[in-house]
């Protein structure tokens, strides 16, 4: 029986290794704030869970309602827009809630990026584990698995083995960028950055949803041209996210610098006030009429 190409094992392994490389690269320059990193992992899990629950409960009714009011040629557009809108609003709304209700309105650059790293890290790890598990199962026990699953992996050309890794890497950057945008909007109270985060993610998820709805997973991974056309678009979004992070990083660090200077000034002011109080207390505890000195003098001459 035909076996799955060994290159696809490398796909899964790379998706498990690359997230740690992202963290290693970041930690080489800046500290990873573990608390925010964990919050990013939790946020991704909640977004995925809530998105699936919403789809199970309302997707059929909403798409059914839309299909009865639009032409068949627009059905694809409505389904793509629905998927993108649901996950964008759940993701951005939940991250906004985490930052606001968690008391992290003043999150600094390191904290914001750590939150984004956690969000992207867990997604890539989950996808990597699922991919490696599927490839291993097909390699070892293809005869015991559903034919559709086996055919999907067996008919993929080996040239596509890097496509999922490329997609996850640039999706990782897109996640970090949108998280930092939301944090920056809260920190600076410039809500146009929140609007841009929503717009950016809506466009990005629309691209991903279009690939899945238009071609289906099997066709998307079997056709080399279609696969890499989609991946090039993902690379463009991820590249935009990286450029945005570099720009935001400069602005964010300037804000952090001003905040640190303000904190140091307030600390210095508090220390000065404390010193003044201590001096005043020592002065009040002495003998203004000089009686203490007279006793010492008398004692020395008696």
Structural summary, described in words:
The chain has 302 residues and is mainly alpha-helical. The chain has one domain (7-264). Helices cover 83% and strands 0% of the residues. It contains nine helices and no strands. α2 (34-67) packs across α4. The protein is elongated and about 95 Å long. The relative contact order is 0.11.
Strand and helix map with partners:
Elements: H1 7-27, H2 34-67, H3 75-101, H4 109-141, H5 147-154, H6 163-188, H7 192-222, H8 224-284, H9 291-301
Characteristic key phrases:
single chain; 302 residues; mainly alpha; 83% helix; elongated; disordered C terminus
Helix tally?
Answer: 9
Helix content: over 70%
Distance between the termini: 117 Å
Unreliable parts: 287-302
* Coarse morphology: elongated
**Domain count:** 1
In short:
With 302 residues, the protein is mainly α. It has helices spanning 7-27, 34-67, 75-101, 109-141, 147-154, 163-188, 192-222, 224-284, 291-301.
